[in-house]
């Protein structure tokens, strides 16, 4: 997005089918707020965790967080545009961007001084949490944070109190499976080898998803579907673990379902 959008001037915007999003706080209550982006030039696009921050030269910021599903698509010639979208932005060079949420998420316009009022911005741009995309995400920093968390691994890696940003429940299942760790293990009780295994598993998962254009069922900025198939999750229900042959089990943990191998993950 940074490469494709920087330097583009916003000509106009359109909202549609957005009333429900407004009612539940996923989109600005006052849709006139989106008028702030009109005339602005995109100066940068950065992401941290699940949140994308599009900054404009006029001080407006577009905050996008398709938390559990959505599409952010760039249209080089402004057509054909998908019929289903919540936000459409037309640029003055006849290109366009559309944003659609298919589940929970955020589409928000805020001025610089107001961004802290956005929950997803506060969560993912929290300087006290690590991002696997940052140079600060080292094994030393990660291990130190784990040592301070006397709780099970899931809330340590996923959610508002996580020590890192951006891991979903799906990613967590893959990471804990790769690291051969049971999701109910206490983070502070892990030994140095287990912390290293967890760190390496996070880095490997993210790299593989990027190389494979994202997770299957999701698409990139140009509509190309990802090919990464989760190693663990609902796709493994009723199947044998490919490493040891044990039957995959489902646990209810942290308000959701987590699939594990009872033999490999201890």
**Largest β sheet strand count, sense and barrel closure:** 4 strands, antiparallel
Helix proportion range = 10-25%
Mean pLDDT, to the nearest integer, reads 93
Number of helical stretches of at least 4 residues: 7
Give the C-level CATH assignment of the largest domain. Answer: Alpha Beta
> What's the total number of strands?
10
Assembly type of the chains comes to single chain
Q: Order of strands side by side in the largest beta sheet? A: 1-6-7-5
Which regions have little confidence, pLDDT < 50, spanning 5+ residues?
none
Q: Based on the structure given, which CATH architecture of the largest domain is correct?
A: Alpha-Beta Barrel
Full CATH superfamily name of the largest domain? MutM-like, N-terminal
Here the CATH topology of the largest domain equals N-terminal domain of MutM-like DNA repair proteins
Radius of gyration: 20 Å
Q: What is the end-to-end distance?
A: 40 Å
Order of helices and strands: HEHEEEEEEEHHHHHEE
State the secondary-structure class: alpha+beta
Sum up the overall morphology in one term: globular
What percentage of the residues does DSSP assign to strands (E)?
15-25%
In total, the number of domains comes to 2
